[in-house]
Amino acid sequence: MARIDLVDLAHSYGGNDADPDSFALKPISMTWRQGGAYALLGPSGCGKTTLLNLISGIVAPSRGKILFDGTDITPLSTQKRNIAQVFQFPVIYDTMTVGQNLAFPLRNRGVAKSEIDARVAEIAKLLDLTPYLNRKATRLTADAKQKISLGRGLVRSDVAAVLFDEPLTVIDPELKWELRSKLKALHRALDLTMIYVTHDQTEALTFADTVVVMHDGRVVQSGTPEELFDKPAHTFVGYFIGSPGMNIVPAEVAGREARIGGHVIQLSRAYDKLPAGAAIEIGVRPEFVSVAPPAPGLLSANIERIDDLGRIRFARVKVGDAKFSARVPPGFSVAGESAGLVFDPARVHVYADSRLVEGHSLGGPV
Amino acid sequence: MDKTVNQKAWFLVLPVFLIVAFSAVLPLMTVVNYSFQDTFGNNQFFWNGVGWFKELLDPSTDLGSRFFASLWRNLFFSAVILAIEVPLGIIVALSMPRDGWRVAACLVILALPLLIPWNVVGTIWQIFGRPDIGLLGYVLNNIGIEYNYVSNEFDAWATVIVMDVWHWTSLVALLCYAGLKSIPDAYYQAAQIDGASRWAVFTAIQLPKMNRVLLIAVLLRFMDSFMIYTEPFVVTGGGPGNSTTFVSIELVKIALGQFDLGKAAALSLVYNLIIIIVCWVFYTVMTNAGVDRQRTQGAA
Q1: Cβ neighbours of residue B268 under 8 Å, at least 6 residues apart?
Q2: Residue B91: pLDDT above 80?
Q3: Domains recognised in chain A with CATH numbers
Q4: Pair B128, B135: CB distance under 8 Å
Q5: CB B234 within 8 A of CB B126
């Protein structure tokens, strides 16, 4: 039960003197609220597991401090940190029963027997492990084993946070859904801070109230799933989250107009002071661009193919050399390859050197 | 699909059959043949039925008493060296470095005793322990500990045991080290998270993960020590008295010393049978453990 603050935390596996660009985790400062459900989202090698291991103390940071409720715990060993972590692959103590496995973290800390029994029973019930409590853990299936690992992470009530490192990798897809909802329920029931590392956006967006997106050792955005979807702070967040990802194309932006290859797109906000020399791009999610019959005034595009996702259809189109995804409105029938693109001005964002630029509203509807 | 019948394949395995026949089956049959007969030289043999086996397994006879005495002695020896080498091997494996150049250095040093021919090991210790010129014997006697493996039974046993421990602990250590290396880091990390003490890490993770290699180590060390001949023969020659005469030494005494081919043959067969049975028990235990493991992995 604690608030966790990271202060200028950074790590390099090559030591502190390594080139700052090669750091696995570039310096970050951020706060994790007590009781929050967080997801650390990013592709492989973006530093999310490193960050997790720094918090749990498996890895000692090259720089910076970690505070639990304001107390600096950076020099403390993992055992003394009061943190729980669940790993990607199930870790089971072979000689023990399921119950003994669940009790292990409590027994090591000298908790009274009656309390251990009560807590193990509670966690086993939450994870549907009660029928197996007296069975040898080695004889169970991989997902049951991973449930035991999860249970060992959750069994201590006093932990500052429970960290999950892609815990559902070995689980079958159908069970994944179930276990994820279970984790969400556990989060509500147990009032623990949970940090969940994953590279799967669905997992992150369904589990967490706050998603922290990492890219190349940096936190590029942290916010609710809606914020990440509606207003990506970085082009990486734009195309990493969402399926298909955000359309990002180089453009010239001046005032309330963006130009792509001579064609003007109206923007709902004005961008006057764009940094000089920066690479300017506009980003718009495929959900907010739709294809229409070619007409003057619309950006003309060539349809390459249409993907039918069931609920919604997306057209893959080409504008000059740039690839676009755009929504196909219901009832639109594709005639030939040419089409026009209709943009929702409020949903078009402008990026300078990959970072979101805020425009000013000039009154009127935004 | 129809199988093609091609009996020519038999010709390809024939050489192996011939080699095995000459190297193993025929000599064994000769031994079986001897065990049922008696000879007084001149290549004359007389049928003796199961006479030698009866005598061998009856402790009241001379042959039987010698056989059982050496058998108990040998089992005691195996038990002692297992009780020392297995824990010691585990401790050595646990204290080995996990990576870096030190690993290579440790492995080379550990492998050295295993590479020395057995009678050289015996000779090394025979000289090492001599009270007049051997470093060990000389030093022990000079610091006031009377030590003489030629005349004192305890000293002879101690020498043979220490020699075996010196020679073979490396094997146990190397096997255990291999077992330890195969444990994924996540287990140690999880144990840290779970607040496990060093001892709890050992009992909950390391020992269970090593149990298969340990079983192999115990099997190998039991077999080798149960069949031990060269080293004690070189150091003590089975003495003082019969105190370090193990089964194989007794066998050679009967076969080559007294030239009692029938008795020696019967002893060989019983000795062989004991070893095969022990092997079979170990093999069964090991494969059952393996099946268990496969079953759980198959379910995974």
Answers
A1: B31, B35, B251, B255
A2: yes
A3: 4-231 (3.40.50.300), 247-357 (2.40.50.140)
A4: yes
A5: yes
Rounded Cα–Cα distance for residues A203 and A42 (Å): 12
pLDDT at A365 over 80: no
- Taking the CA of residue A202 and the nearest CA in chain B, the distance in Å comes to 25
Q: What pLDDT sits at residue B60?
A: 84
Q: How far is A96 from chain B (nearest CA, A)?
A: 8
Please report, as a single letter, which amino acid is at residue A210. T
Q: Is the peptide bond before B87 cis (omega within 30 degrees of 0)?
A: no
**Both tokens of residue A287?**
């959900």
The Cα B149–Cα B238 span in angstroms is 11
Adjacency order of strands within the sheet including A280-284: A247-250, A280-284, A349-352, A355-357
Phi, psi of A26 (to 5 degrees): -75, 155
State the pLDDT at residue A366. Answer: 40
Q: How far is CA B71 from the centre of its chain?
A: 14
Q: Are the Cβ atoms of A77 and B296 closer than 8 angstroms?
A: no
**Low-confidence winner among A194-198, A284-288, A329-333, B231-235 (lowest mean pLDDT):** A329-333
pLDDT of residue A362: 63
**Both tokens of residue B90?**
């585990």
* CB-nearest partner of B300 from A83, A88, A141: A141
CA distances from A84 to A149, A158, A212 (A): 10, 10, 20
- Contact between B96 and B175 under an 8 Å Cβ cutoff? The reply is no
| Of A281, A257, A222, A251, nearest in space to A362 by CA | A257
Nearest CA among A64, A86, A87, A88 for reference residue A4 = A64
ipTM over 0.90: no
Cβ separation of A58 and B192 shorter than 8 Å?
Answer: yes
Q: Look at A18-22, A251-255, B20-24, B219-223 and tell me which has the smallest mean pLDDT.
A: A18-22
Is A162 in CB contact (< 8 Å) with chain B? Answer: no
Least confident range from A271-275, B72-76, B224-228: namely A271-275
For residue B63, give both structure tokens.
Answer: 């042959």
Q: Kindly determine whether residue A56 and residue B195, on different chains, have CB atoms separated by under 8 Å.
A: no
Establish if A109 touches chain B: CB-CB under 8 angstroms: yes
> CA-based angle B128:B130:B136, to the nearest 5?
50
> Structure tokens of B12?
């390809």
Q: Domains of chain B (ranges plus CATH)? A: 61-299 (1.10.3720.10)
